[in-house]
Amino acid sequence: MTAFEAVLFDCDGVLVDSESITNRVLCTMLNESGWPISTEECLREFIGKTVRSQAALIEARTGKPLTDAWMAAFYERRNAALRAELVAIDGALSAVSESHALCAGRIACASGADRAKVEMQLAQVGMAPYFEGRVFSGHELPRSKPFPDVYLAAAAALGVEPARCLVIEDTVTGVTAGVAAGATVWGYFPADQGHASAEQLLEAGASCVFGDMGELPAMLRAIGQASASA
């Protein structure tokens, strides 16, 4: 039993350990294009954002247009690296399976990334069956995170009011989107995370932060029990 009717998961950094892989490929390609950006700066600039949403910045720093061909090359190199290296976040598979059971199947993956990437990653780490038909991409909506569109779409598809949804996010951009949707947001902040502080996630509107994805089911049960006894 849980106090929430649905759990909406971000993907990158919450379910799969993909952000350092994608960032490395992006950083390499930006350097090749004439922007001598460090991996640390690249992570700060792009974490939680789509590459296309930062087109003006990329074009200003490289002096070149962000073309469809460049994006296609980025996707190809990124996906090859992900297929070779991607692993699940520790504890995420059990968190997903138990959340699925606690919410009677009402869970979804709501990502700012392109659908092909999200579905490839979920399949690679064994989570795809839990999200079948319930993967939502900001690329397919009028606005991506930090706007709430992807979370509103996920809640609507599940038939749950956003206020009855719990969102799990690891970036300020994502927390902002979940809060704007009207959901409760818990910030995932592992000890080795370097792109956002716990304080920043709380300031963005997360109601709490936690550092072990494997603890999520127990947290859901605890808040459900507290709600039932209130």
The pLDDT mean sits at 94
N- and C-termini, Cα separation: 14 Å
Query: Which structural class fits the helix and strand makeup?
Result: alpha/beta
Instruction: Kindly provide the radius of gyration, computed on alpha-carbon positions and rounded to a whole number of angstroms.
Output: 17 Å
- Proportion of beta-strand residues: 5-15%
Largest β-sheet summary? 6 strands, parallel
Residue stretches low in confidence (pLDDT < 50, at least 5 long) are none
CATH superfamily of the largest domain: HAD superfamily/HAD-like
Query: Architecture of the largest domain in CATH?
Result: 3-Layer(aba) Sandwich
Q: How many separate domains make up the residues? A: 2
Can you tell me the CATH topology of the largest domain? Rossmann fold
Give, in spatial order, the strands making up the sheet with the most strands. 3-2-1-4-5-6
| CATH level 1 name of the largest domain | Alpha Beta
Note the run of SSEs as H and E: EHHHHHEHEHEHEHEH
Q: Give the tally of β-strands.
A: 6
Mass-distribution shape: globular
Cofactor: Mg(2+)
Organism: Delftia acidovorans (strain DSM 14801 / SPH-1)
Protein name: HAD-superfamily hydrolase, subfamily IA, variant 3
Keywords: Hydrolase, Magnesium, Metal-binding
